[in-house]
Design goal:
The chain is α/β, with parallel strands linked by helices and 288 residues long. Helices cover 43% and strands 8% of the residues.
């Protein structure tokens, strides 16, 4: 995918080092069929349940962000993966912000934090690189150790730049969900119906996959041959059933938190083919 170079002044990035960020957001994006917003923490290559406890441990609003003397250009220029991530972040901001503006809803960009080993204080508690990429709604932050991309390629066979862009776009999808302001309602539903908690979480993750596809679909002119296959391979590699088989476990749909490989590929494809966020209503059948 031929993304344009990011504008250092248009992306919020930082290097991991224990800082925290204020929360924010609110409202509904105004796209008729959107029915979401819940904490989204996606784990690529690890047991999805590893991050649930961390995310559910969200406390009160974190203190203000620590200020770094490093510029966005310096932080993003660490390696080719970080440059790609910043290019993706810039493109995602440019794609989603106008949609919020058209709906008359306040928009705020997420902050991308590059983890580099050790642990990190986030608005959702302590995190580490071993947890894989994730989004924290409390501080509107995307967290990632770019070394994960080597794991994605080497251990899961998900190669190519579009596979990596998909990771970023999925986490950004959780940011879109967070800005709808419906997180408390969904969390309340999970609390009131604990038997449906996993099912609701799965729908959240599948919608983030669809939103990742919407971003790509709206930038169709930048897509290159093979990109779709790279994205679908990545989506398949991180399906709950595939991860459970890879870990030598019995496939248990009741324990799914992100969806099967087939589901993840299907919703990514919906977003890609339509470029329409209104088509990402993964909750439709629950309301029938």
């Amino acid at each position: 995918m031929r993304l344009n170079p990011f504008n250092p002044g248009s992306v919020n990035v930082r290097r991991g080092g224990g800082g925290r960020f204020p929360g924010g957001g609110g409202g509904k994006i105004g796209c008729g069929t959107l029915v979401i917003a819940l904490i989204g923490a996606v784990v690529f290559g690890l047991d999805p349940m590893q991050t649930i406890g961390m995310v559910e441990g969200t406390q009160t609003a974190p203190p203000a962000r620590q200020v770094s003397n490093e510029s966005a250009a310096e932080i993003c220029d660490d390696n080719s993966y970080s440059v790609e991530s910043c290019n993706a972040l810039g493109s995602l901001n440019e794609t989603w912000q106008p949609l919020f503006q058209q709906a008359g809803i306040s928009f705020s960009q997420p902050t991308l934090t590059f983890l580099g080993g050790g642990t990190e204080n986030t608005g959702c508690g302590r995190a580490s690189s071993a947890m894989g990429p994730f989004y924290c709604p409390a501080d509107q932050g995307i967290y990632i150790d770019t070394a994960f991309y080597d794991q994605l390629s080497r251990e899961m066979g998900a190669r190519g730049d579009f596979a990596r862009y998909y990771v970023m776009a999925h986490e950004y999808g959780h940011h879109v969900q967070n800005l709808t302001g419906l997180a408390d309602q969904i969390r309340s539903a999970q609390s009131q119906q604990p038997q449906a908690a996993n099912q609701l979480q799965v729908r959240m993750e599948l919608q983030a996959d669809c939103y990742a596809g919407v971003w790509a679909g709206r930038n169709r002119n930048l897509i290159e041959p093979g990109d779709l296959e790279e994205g679908l391979t990545a989506a398949s590699a991180i399906g709950d059933d595939t991860l459970q088989r890879g870990a030598g476990r019995r496939v248990d749909p009741e324990s799914f938190t992100h969806g099967s490989s087939e589901q993840r590929m299907r919703w990514l494809r919906v977003g890609l083919q339509t470029g329409d966020e209104d088509q990402c209503d993964t909750f439709a059948d629950l309301r029938q």
